[in-house]
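Dear Dr. V.,

Thank you for agreeing to look over these. As mentioned in my earlier message, I'm a first-year student in the group and I'm still getting used to reading structure tokens, so any feedback on how I've presented them would be very welcome. I ran two proteins. I've put each sequence directly above its structure. The first is here:
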Amino acid sequence: MVEISFFSDSKCGGIYPSNLGRCVSTLHYGARSISAQWNDAFINSSSKRIKLNSRLLPSMPNVDAVLKLRSGDQWIYEGILIAEVEGVKEGAEVPISTIPSLLNSSKEIFELCSEGIQNDLERIKFSWRTRTLVEEERAAWAKSGVFIHGPMDKIHIAPGARIRSCSLNTEEGEIIIGADSELMEGCCVRGPFVLGPKSQIKMGATVYGPTSIGENCRIGGEVNNCVFHDYSNKAHEGFLGNSVIGSWCNLGALTSSSNLKNNYSEISLWNNDSKSFEKSGMQFCGLLMGDHSKTAIHTSFNTGTIVGAFCNVFGNLTPQKHIPSFTWGDVDIYEIEKVIDTVKRVMKRRDKDLSSEEELNIRQLHKSSTFGM
């Protein structure tokens, strides 16, 4: 059995706000977390203990490079420890020709969504026990109201998934439907796309790939190139494009985000290290939101807005482009006891309990935040 432990390096701060209160390895690369994919990659390997940089993506070249490491070997790139296999001998750097693919920012989570889905495709099909459709089924699906455009063998369905009358397009990528999930009536989906277990695409929703929806999410309205982490909701109308949403978030009805400036110019994003807005080199970027943040009905975000963790966003004005963690409304502090109470009630709706360790982490994050200091 392979034991994997993840460690953080000095570059993890650049993945703000997605990394707040969580290890980078729990963030999604395509459809699933970095850690889940690494664990699946070593499922048939001999027993060893491996330390992995939490930013190391489970791409095929990265996996191949780590698999070649022997006991005591270290993979170091430009002075950064990438991976190490623990052994009886002292760790020694070995020459690796592969340039490691590392997660460097939150925006890369949606930028790499398609790549992540493709890299994880065979692992996720095995892990989720999906059934791949065949061409001979096209007429039967059409008769039931499910119209499929493109290759049938790019649709993979896990046990318990429910697909109502809808439109699926695989011309540009795979569509993977997780166990006990549901595509409701009238929705339209274009791949690459992954719907996590127990998640729903609501009636009439339009989803453009590459997009991945985590476990136990509710998604409606229009979504384009987005990554939703587990237990988050955008159940109503409103547009969201080129965005990353953390876990346990809820976007109120008609919440929308611009992903393109009116003058089509380069987008500036908040850099939490320099505490300033910096050019991103991007023309398209919507909303980057940390865990457990919520929005009120009709909330409209500017292009390239960053929302920290545990925020409650509401008010009459367009929210500022950077909202620090634990913000209540626009500028007030979200008191920690109210935060904990809300988290417990939200999690209870999904039959989850807030553990004492999780509560301690929230309190520590609040204490170290801009408002908590």
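The second protein is here, in the same arrangement:
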Amino acid sequence: MPKLIRIFLLSGLTLALSAGFALAQAQNRLSIEQVKDGLYMITGPGGNIGVRTTSEGVILIDNKYPQDFDEIQSLVASVSDLPVRYVINTHHHGDHSGSNAGYIEVAEIIAHQNARDNMIRGNQDAPPRLVYTKQTAVYLGGVEVRAYYMGRGHTNGDTVVYFPDLKTVHGGDLLHGIAPFIDYANGGSSHGWVGTMNNILALDWDTAIPGHGTLMDRRDVLNFRNQMEAVRVRMKTLINDGLEEQDAAEAIKDSSLAWTQAENGLFMSRSIPGFYAEIANESE
């Protein structure tokens, strides 16, 4: 075989193998791990998914992006041979509710009324058919899964999901492994968030699935609440000392407050204008 043709063939084979590897990687963006007996967490790009298996089907908490539907279904099938019967959206953001369009064809989706309203206002696909205002529950295969609205925080429609038999909560983006985002455009509130955290801590649990990041325990959640309070105090002090809004993003930085130091953190880049306005109004 001529050398030049051989080079072209080898180059083509290398490209094909590289493309195949890239495709395989793209098709395996997510992974699943056991949290407790009958409870799993799916991680990867987008919000963490809770997977509660029962003898009559599966209850999902959140469902990431639209393109993740098939892979989520495959991962669920690796821990249960039964179908997904219910999906609970912790809030409306697309990295948590993006696969609603797929799941609404095969399961019932549940969310807080405000979360559904936010989805409709944002023209999102497949808003849930079932909503609640204060609390609700799903009973499936002898398993109880409770959904609570505990107040404003990340948005005005956050759901806290509680697995009482496993002493575990899924907090959606009310719990976060990095600096949180307060979605003021959709009813978020730092003041409300502190109260909501106190309500979560009032439940009997030892393990928490956050919206993003690794599993948390009660100390982690308490530290999260304390930092929210500390950042609020710092902003209030700065405003009382004459801080102007345009200087807030830089002035809020404090070496003792990790959220204010996070590079490209959502708290710094997206929440500061609304945060300044909220605290300024409280200070009047």
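From my reading of the second output: The two ends are 84 Å apart (CA to CA). Residues 3-11, 13-26 have pLDDT under 50 and may be disordered. Does that match how you would interpret it?

Kind regards,
E.
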